[in-house]
Amino acid sequence: MEYISTRGNDKRTPSMAILKGLAADGGLFMPEYIPKMDIPLSGLAEMDYRELAYNILKLYLTDFTEEELRECVNKAYDSKFDDKAIVPLKKKGDAYYLELFHGPTIAFKDMALSILPWLLTTAAKKNGVKERIVILTATSGDTGKAALEGFKDVPGTSIVVFYPKDGVSPVQEKQMLTTGGENTFVVGIYGNFDEAQSGVKEIFNDKAFEKTLKDRGILLSSANSINIGRLTPQIVYYYYAYLDLLKKGIIKEGDRINIAVPTGNFGNILAAYFAKEMGLPVNKLICASNENKVLYDFFSTDIYDRNRDFFVTTSPSMDILISSNLERLIYLITGRDAEKTSDLMKSLADIGRYEILPKEAEGLESFYGGFASEKETEEEIRKVFDDSGYVIDTHTAVASFVYRKYKEETGDDRPTVIASTASPFKFQQSVIKALSPEDAGDDEEILTDRLSEIAKVDIPYAVLSLRNAPIRHDIKCSPEEMKETLIRILEK
Questions:
Q1: Which of 186, 261, 409, 412 could form a disulfide with 473 if both were Cys (CB 3.0 to 4.6 A apart)?
Q2: Is the pTM of this model over 0.90?
Q3: What Cα–Cα distance (Å) separates residue 78 from each residue in 46, 71, 271, 434, 487?
Q4: Angle at 83 between CA 145 and CA 172, to 5 degrees
Q5: Where do the DSSP E strands lie in 322-479?
Q6: CB neighbours of residue 435 within 10 Å
Q7: DSSP three-state, residue 354
């Protein structure tokens, strides 16, 4: 299989698409077709997570040998996850919460970023790459720490993470700033995630800068979900959730389910769409936004418009107005028209908006868009706890609320999987405020202990380990200084 840029002017093997991250023309790599699953669901149901991951990824990463791919999978999904299932599915109330936070950084980004370093270093060997690979990433909170952990001390690589200085939770920030490793660098920018993401894209698109780095023996790549090596591993857990429902007798083979995903950059729900296109029986993909509801408005009006106020919310990983992965969906619904996709993305860059045609909008029928206000998010955390004793984080609460709204509007009561994207301990201040306002405060250790008591679960090691961890990173810059800052880091 070859990978083609959404803007039409770059074509690569799967391993080279992973290495490059972003296409040379600024587009995102897409497989030339979405493969159909060639094993019946009843056969897949017998597999553990690693075997399932291998059988899905082999359809996309066709230039990896079986030995190479199995080694990547086995190194990724090992004892670093604190649950044997890797992604346990919990029934609470009338929904099924897919816990994607049992990895080392207690957020769903671990699911893909545990395997990406191995895919990338394997791809480098396959293609005879001698340069040092520098991973350049912008994060709205969770990608940063998961990428840092994934690439920490991986030979032949370095990683530089840019994050909005005042746009992540205290736990998210401390997780990043305390990361060890000789090859890890963290930079706080005085701006929001969209500015960080745009700055990273500009660096990737600077051909003169790329040559300068190549002359110094450096190859830039990305760990953001713009990298196809990040996106494809996320398909696996949607299959796993369906198969778990099948094994438990909750559904029969072929029954359709709904999937609700809290999303900002659109990568996580796009992976669910890929699963559906591969043949997974999915009815609706419920796209849940917070108050930065640019995606909700897009699904409601067929107009994508980032010209609006930006809100800092209690679900910061979704505080995004430029949803990069939506470009891949646009490419598909325009009939893989690279020229049309390129024109729409140029319009987004130039005037901050674009509009799709009615015929193209027909390709969005799989999706339902909804959003939750800050008040509704807080109330949903409290409602789920009151109803079931289950504690969810702010992002999961957004998806949970939007799912209930969808159900009320449509009467659709088929089994629904809600992607639970982070541990409540990652956003404990907001969660405590919702559940026990009298205990809300700034002391992170007190909040952690209280949340453990309320939720009746042990404090995750990822949080406990922060208590005495020294701050190792203190670089800051403006969005305009990102390239200059990167050069200084790489000269060290």
A1: 186
A2: yes
A3: 19, 11, 22, 34, 35
A4: 20
A5: 353-355, 367-371, 416-420, 475-477
A6: 20
A7: strand
The tokens describing 368, both together, are 């339902």
CB 123 within 8 A of CB 153: no
Q: Please say if the pLDDT value at position 140 is more than 90.
A: no
Contacts of residue 168, defined as CB under 8 A and 6 or more positions apart, other chains included, come to 139, 140, 141, 144, 176, 316
Contact 284, 260 (CB under 8 A): no
Q: Which two tokens stand for residue 389?
A: 């004793």
Nearest to 465 by CA among 206, 27, 104: 104
Distance CA 215, CA 355 (A): 41
* Cα separation, 362 vs 188, whole angstroms: 41
The length of the chain is 492
Q: How would you class 26 by CB atoms within 10 Å of its CB: exposed for 0-12, middle for 13-18, buried for 19 or more?
A: buried
- Joined together, the tokens standing for residue 164 give 């909005």
The 10s digit of each residue's pLDDT in 339-361 is 999 999 999 999 999 999 999 99
Position 11, amino acid: K
Give the separation between CA 86 and CA 239, rounded to whole angstroms: 13
319/308 Cα distance (integer angstroms): 13
Please give the DSSP secondary-structure letter assigned to residue 30.
E
Order of strands across the sheet that contains 475-477? 218-221, 132-138, 157-164, 184-189, 475-477
CA 342 → CA 190, 334, 386, distances in Å? 30, 11, 48
pLDDT one-digit tens code per residue, 17-76: 999 999 999 999 999 999 999 999 999 999 999 999 999 999 999 999 999 999 999 999
Per residue in 290-316, pLDDT (tens digit) is 999 999 999 999 999 999 999 999 999
Q: What is the C-alpha to C-alpha distance for residues 10 and 13, in angstroms, rounded to an integer?
A: 10
Catalytic residue list = 109
Rounded Cα distance, 171 and 462, in Å? 10
Cβ(178)–Cβ(149) below 8 Å: no
Q: Which are the contacts of 423, defined by CB distance < 8 A and separation ≥ 6? A: 101, 106, 107, 393, 460, 462
Q: Structural domains in the chain?
A: 89-106+231-457 (3.40.50.1100)
